[in-house]
Write a structure and sequence with these properties.
By secondary structure, the chain is of the alpha/beta class. The protein has a six-stranded parallel sheet, sandwiched between helices. The chain is globular, with a radius of gyration of 26 Å. Strand 11 and strand 12 form a beta hairpin.
Length: 492
């Protein structure tokens, strides 16, 4: 793992070619995303003011990002006053070092974890393992991924690519390696699988002295953190251990409790199609006799400040990780999350990963092209992130080989393969469009030779026509049709 990108993964086009041939994967994704889409639409339709809520969420996030420095200092002040300790991490390496040292100070060699995209982004589990510390995932889907030695493929449902038969096999084969084995005669009935996971995890909850979490939101005015979930595993991790370490991206701030109320309506309906999450856990520092005795907040940058400097791309930092964009994306539904090679798959990953990771990496630079630009992601986004707009913006940067600021220093983007040919084609088009006479000749030649045109382009154009048909030229150009039409209209 490096900056949220899985090391060794090919660029998106190569990975997608393999993924679309997996009929089981496509069937699992089609069923899961289709079900979620229908339920989400019904949940959203219940609110007459959904459009106003969406606009409010976008406005709150924009205001917060414009004054992020102020709210970050406010969070630090309030958390410290409430008995917590705040740590600042510029990148993944620093965050991993901080968390590892905090766990070592407790003398423990294992931690339980609440589902957290931020800790996946920095590769915390791997960093802890290198230090001799075992991290146990307690979210059901994350548990499936961990036991199966797999990678997450969805923001909300990391094991969405697995069907229940596959999950039963994973539990039966792997649970004993990580703790309590699966019950004898385990079937693929959801209730039995959930019970097996509950029994397996219960001993870890009761034994663990240290927990690691992320947070869905941080309330600046009080220093309160919030985690919303559906299973109750998060509540166990947040209340039973003696030490709680929360790794949170700096963009997760909302200014006030009143602002939080907006997102507690937007997030559950957009993610799990619920009116309210079954478990909403809120904590502020430490409290004598209740919950952890030590609380540490690690504020994670890891490319977020650089993203904030991009006036177009910064809207990706509004994301509340609801995964609604994944569930409507035709590309994601056919390729799955692994093809993106990143912790953040789907449309939001296609704009977030290149900005957090930087576009020097070939995989990250390919992600802005992992979209048909249909706009469905923008329509469902609860905070109105114009993902297609950012995708085009990032494509422009990749195609032109422009510069981006990475860790405070300018870095040259390495253009992806095929971009040299694309630039040459654009220059040729510009030359022709600037010369009407030449354009007219080119159109007439193309029309006259239309029966000789190949169905697939040769050379650099082969990649473009590998996934689409070359458009057929009409019998006459619009220019000629217009001239003929006007001449015929003038005749008596």
């Amino acid at each position: 793992m490096s900056g949220g990108v899985f090391v060794g993964m090919p660029a998106f086009p190569e990975a997608a070619k393999v993924a679309v041939r997996d009929e089981v994967l496509r069937g699992n994704l089609r069923h899961a995303t289709g079900t979620i889409r229908v339920r989400r639409a019904a949940a959203v339709a219940e609110l007459a003011d959904w459009a106003a809520l969406r606009a409010a969420g976008a406005a709150i996030k924009e205001r917060t990002l414009r004054h992020l420095d102020h709210y970050l200092l406010q969070v630090e002040e309030r958390v410290t006053a409430a008995g917590g300790v705040v740590h600042w991490a510029a990148d993944a390496a620093e965050a991993n070092r901080i968390v590892t040292e905090l766990v070592r100070e407790t003398g423990e060699h294992e931690v339980v974890k609440v589902k957290s995209m931020a800790t996946q982004e920095i590769g915390l589990n791997e960093a802890l393992a290198e230090a001799g510390i075992t991290a146990y995932e307690t979210d059901l889907a994350e548990l499936i991924v961990q036991l199966g030695e797999d990678r997450p493929s969805h923001i909300l449902v990391p094991a969405i690519h697995r069907n229940r038969g596959e999950i039963r096999e994973i539990f039966a084969d792997r649970m004993a390696t990580w703790g309590r084995p699966a019950p004898e005669g385990l079937t693929d009935e959801p209730a039995e699988l959930a019970e097996a996971a509950r029994l397996h995890l219960r001993e870890k909850f009761l034994r663990a002295k240290v927990a690691v979490s992320g947070a869905n939101f941080m309330v600046a005015e009080t220093g309160t953190l919030a985690v919303v979930e559906s299973e109750g595993n998060g509540r166990m991790c947040l209340t039973l251990p003696e030490t709680l370490i929360s790794v949170v991206g700096i963009e997760k701030i909302v200014p006030t409790w009143r602002d939080l109320e907006v997102f507690l309506q937007l997030l559950p309906r957009s993610s799990t199609a619920e009116r309210m999450n079954p478990y909403t856990s809120l904590w502020t520092g430490t409290t004598d006799g209740d919950g952890p005795r030590a609380f540490h907040l690690v504020l994670l940058d890891n490319g977020r400040t650089d993203t904030l400097a991009d006036t177009v791309g910064r809207q990706a930092l509004r994301c509340i990780r609801c995964s609604a964009c994944l569930n409507v994306c035709p590309v994601y539904e056919r390729t799955g999350g692994h093809a993106y090679g990143s912790v953040y798959p789907g449309p939001i990953g296609a704009i977030l990963t290149p900005q957090l990771q930087g576009m020097e990496d070939e995989l990250a630079a390919s992600l802005p092209y992992a979209s048909s630009l249909c706009g469905a992601c923008y329509q469902v986004c609860p905070v109105a992130i114009d993902i297609p707009d950012v995708l085009v913006h990032l494509r422009e940067r990749a195609a032109t080989g422009g510069t981006v600021t990475r860790r405070g220093a300018p870095a040259r983007i390495r253009p992806a393969r095929g971009h040299a040919a694309e630039r040459a084609a654009m220059r040729a088009a510009r030359w022709a469009l600037d010369r009407p006479a030449a354009l007219r000749v080119a159109q007439r030649v193309a029309t006259a030779t239309r029966r000789l045109h190949p169905r697939r382009l040769p050379g650099p154009g082969r990649a473009w026509t590998a996934s689409r048909d070359l458009p057929a030229f009409p019998e006459q150009s619009f220019r000629d049709w217009w001239t003929t039409r006007n001449r015929d209209d003038r005749q008596p």
